[in-house]
């Protein structure tokens, strides 16, 4: 499967609120009926001189065919390296999702959360001490399949435990916390 995703956290731009224009392409391949692997290329980062990718697997932990529900886990390794200093940054991630198929695997709703882990003791900016080593991002999404095409819309609440009032970017969160995000995706199954 090949796919494209666009969207990001909402922020104030001029007189309006828009999603950050982040984009990425990915490739996924099934290894078994329960496990797939994937890798991506973050194109927006690449435009600014940073090679960024996430490589991982999606594994089905539980499935109930009668109720059309299931649970998946996605261990992921996020990597970024800049072209100037060749500085490498690594963020492990573990996502958990529960899904409900609406019509025989053609479309489903899902809910879950991403867990990002910051390994660095210091922030990249101003060499400040890093206090947040676990960042949770709850999400809710809908996936619709039509023939070989899959269309996705997802909403995330990014870092809901982090105060967002002292940033250069004015994020749209809830009660001065985190950032709400909107993401759109389109995937194509390869034969």
Structure described in brief:
The chain is mainly β and 191 residues long. Helices cover 3% and strands 66% of the residues.
Your description of this structure?
It is a single chain. The protein is mostly beta strands. The protein has one domain: Porin. It is built from one helix and eleven strands; from the N terminus they run ββββαβββββββ. The protein has a ten-stranded antiparallel β-barrel with strand order 1-3-4-5-6-7-8-9-10-11. The model has no long low-confidence stretch (mean pLDDT 93).
Low-confidence stretches: none
Determine the fraction of residues in helical runs and give it as a percent range.
Answer: under 10%
Q: How many distinct beta strands?
A: 11
CATH architecture annotation: Beta Barrel
Coarse morphology: globular
Largest pleated sheet: 10 strands, antiparallel, barrel
Tell me the count of domains. 1
Strand order in the largest sheet = 1-3-4-5-6-7-8-9-10-11
The oligomeric status of these chains comes to single chain
| CATH class assignment | Mainly Beta
Briefly note the CATH topology name. Porin
- What would you call the structural class? mainly beta
Individual helix count: 1
What is the first-to-last residue Cα distance?
9 Å
Radius of gyration equals: 18 Å
Strand content: over 45%
Overall average residue pLDDT: 93
Please provide the ordered H/E string of secondary-structure elements: EEEEHEEEEEEE
């Amino acid at each position: 499967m090949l796919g494209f995703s666009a969207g990001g956290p909402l922020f104030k731009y001029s007189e309006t609120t828009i999603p950050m224009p982040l984009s990425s392409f990915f490739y996924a391949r099934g290894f078994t009926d329960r496990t797939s692997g994937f890798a991506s290329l973050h194109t927006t980062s690449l435009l600014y001189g940073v090679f960024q990718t996430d490589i991982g697997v999606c594994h089905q932990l539980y499935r109930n065919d009668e109720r059309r529900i299931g649970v998946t886990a996605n261990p992921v390794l996020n990597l970024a390296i800049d072209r100037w200093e060749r500085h490498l940054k690594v963020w492990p991630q573990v996502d958990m999702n529960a899904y409900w198929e609406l019509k025989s695997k053609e479309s489903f709703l899902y809910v879950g959360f991403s867990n990002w882990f910051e390994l660095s003791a210091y922030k990249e900016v101003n060499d400040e001490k890093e206090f947040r080593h676990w960042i949770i991002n709850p999400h809710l999404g809908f996936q619709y399949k039509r023939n070989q095409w899959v269309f996705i819309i997802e909403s995330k609440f990014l870092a809901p435990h982090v105060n967002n009032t002292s940033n250069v970017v004015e994020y749209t969160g809830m009660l001065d916390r985190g950032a709400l995000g909107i993401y759109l995706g389109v995937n194509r199954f390869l034969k």
